[in-house]
Amino acid sequence: MNSQSQQQQQGKQKSREEEEEEENHLLQSECESIPLSSPHVLPSNWEHADKEEEEEEKDSVYAAKDKVQIFDLESSGAAGSTAVPPFSWRKLWLFTGPGLLMSVAFLDPGNLEGDLQAGAIAGYSLLWLLMWSTIMGLVIQLLSARLGVATGRHLAELCREEYSNWARLVLWILAEMALIAADIQEVIGSAIAFKILSHGLIPIWAGVVITATDCFFFLFLENYGVRKLEGVFAVFIGTMGLSFAWMFFDTSPSEEELMMGLLIPRLSSKTLRQAVEIVGCVITPHNVFLHSALVQSRDIDIRNKGQVQEALNYYSIESSVALLVTLLINLSVITVFARVFYGTEQANGIGLVNAGQYLEERYGGGLFPILYIWGIGLLAAGQSSTITGTYAGQFITEGFLKLNIKKWLRALITRSCAIVPTMICAIVFNTSESSLDTLNEWLNVVQAIQIPFALIPLLTLVSKEEVMGTFRIGPIVEKVAWSVAVLVILVYGYMLLDFFLEEIDGVLFGFLVCLGAAAWISFIVYLVQHSGAIPSLMTRSPNSRGFFSLSGN
């Protein structure tokens, strides 16, 4: 029996060896058939796999080698794992970064101008509105991050797939217009800061050129790693925080008035316009597109539900902390100008250009003149927001148009699209402070037109199970999100109505405004109908993941 079993085992081993030799012979003959002039050609199945990897690499916002590695530090489980590891300070540190870049849009020069005018005209009465507007902005930005993490793609890419050709073309054009409008505000804000810090030696147009060129220098830092660029933004935000905190303690605002402004809602017809501007400054359309792309700088396996949920938890924490910092900075600016200019003759005429001069007249020079402290804070706001504007432009352009070109070339194209009109505006409108204020009002109008066409697609996509899978938002959060979106759109709609009622002069201009308003409302109705939001809100069952769920179950 033993000898017979040994013979059977030897026979099986021999047959396996023959099979292996035959496979090796076939593989060798297949490789020999490859022409020597094409050393990188592989068998068909290998070539197909490589092509798929190349396509994924091209479609990815960040190359695999550029992404921050987090989950390879320890075993992260299988692809279908839903387990979420305990909280880790080290992982929170590694996830910290995208929220910093996103939060810069809450501190751009347009926001600072809205803050100082709100403080000068309304005093402390609108601080509560700033706080709640920031909370609404946080909800929108967390939804944007959720979309990017759960799908591995950003909002512009998903809009390209979600909507018909004509709709996505309109969405792209409107997004580009809003981005250019925001960029003009940011670049001119930096140019004003250069003029302040140089004591008038650098004119506005020269400051625009400097800002346009140094933006490429900061973007070049990304070649040394995403974390280096995020560190630069941390320095910018820290600079703003120190500058405006210095001004806050230097002017000694009333603590009692500050707390009353935060806790007691107050609004009057005289301060309604400033209230609308506060809400409008906090929620910006290009930032909605931006955050969904920035979160992809971390290497996350979207097939691993545990990883996705863990990433969402950490991004929620770091985004909340980042926007808390922006809230404190914006509060400082409002309270400083409320303390110094509320109820004065200069209140109605104050803006970015003359704010530093008025502060110097009130508080003089000293060891660190308040004029230059204001200029440093404004410069940090302008420089940082200009860079994030460039990033948003790149993501929007390549997302809607699927442009696979080199990053420096994309930056050149998108930067040129913004800088050329900015240069023209800087030269044309640099005749007086009032002309720059007029320009700023028109730029706010352009951004107000775009905001529904960023919010509605975002809410449409995060509510779809075929897009988000199990990470679609739950029915309660969906209702809250749509309520926030409707409120924001109504606020922007009021801003547009108030602006055009003042500006309409003549039958032709009035007809064009009415025509544009009809088209604006019609497109909003189309997007809402496409989303299926109204029947969804009425019939959705509460079986989806909650927005702030901390477990993968």
TrEMBL record:
<dbReference type="GO" id="GO:0016020">
    <property type="term" value="C:membrane"/>
</dbReference>
<feature type="transmembrane region" description="Helical">
    <location>
        <begin position="480"/>
        <end position="501"/>
    </location>
</feature>
<feature type="transmembrane region" description="Helical">
    <location>
        <begin position="169"/>
        <end position="194"/>
    </location>
</feature>
<protein>
    <submittedName>
        <fullName>Metal transporter Nramp2-like</fullName>
    </submittedName>
</protein>
<feature type="compositionally biased region" description="Low complexity">
    <location>
        <begin position="1"/>
        <end position="12"/>
    </location>
</feature>
<feature type="transmembrane region" description="Helical">
    <location>
        <begin position="442"/>
        <end position="459"/>
    </location>
</feature>
<feature type="transmembrane region" description="Helical">
    <location>
        <begin position="321"/>
        <end position="342"/>
    </location>
</feature>
<feature type="transmembrane region" description="Helical">
    <location>
        <begin position="200"/>
        <end position="220"/>
    </location>
</feature>
<feature type="transmembrane region" description="Helical">
    <location>
        <begin position="412"/>
        <end position="430"/>
    </location>
</feature>
<dbReference type="GO" id="GO:0005384">
    <property type="term" value="F:manganese ion transmembrane transporter activity"/>
</dbReference>
<keyword id="KW-1133">Transmembrane helix</keyword>
<keyword id="KW-0472">Membrane</keyword>
<feature type="transmembrane region" description="Helical">
    <location>
        <begin position="92"/>
        <end position="107"/>
    </location>
</feature>
<dbReference type="InterPro" id="IPR001046">
    <property type="entry name" value="NRAMP_fam"/>
</dbReference>
<dbReference type="Pfam" id="PF01566">
    <property type="entry name" value="Nramp"/>
</dbReference>
<feature type="region of interest" description="Disordered">
    <location>
        <begin position="1"/>
        <end position="59"/>
    </location>
</feature>
<comment type="similarity">
    <text>Belongs to the NRAMP (TC 2.A.55) family.</text>
</comment>
<dbReference type="GO" id="GO:0015086">
    <property type="term" value="F:cadmium ion transmembrane transporter activity"/>
</dbReference>
<feature type="transmembrane region" description="Helical">
    <location>
        <begin position="232"/>
        <end position="249"/>
    </location>
</feature>
<dbReference type="GO" id="GO:0034755">
    <property type="term" value="P:iron ion transmembrane transport"/>
</dbReference>
<feature type="transmembrane region" description="Helical">
    <location>
        <begin position="127"/>
        <end position="149"/>
    </location>
</feature>
<feature type="transmembrane region" description="Helical">
    <location>
        <begin position="507"/>
        <end position="528"/>
    </location>
</feature>
<dbReference type="GO" id="GO:0005802">
    <property type="term" value="C:trans-Golgi network"/>
</dbReference>
<keyword id="KW-0812">Transmembrane</keyword>
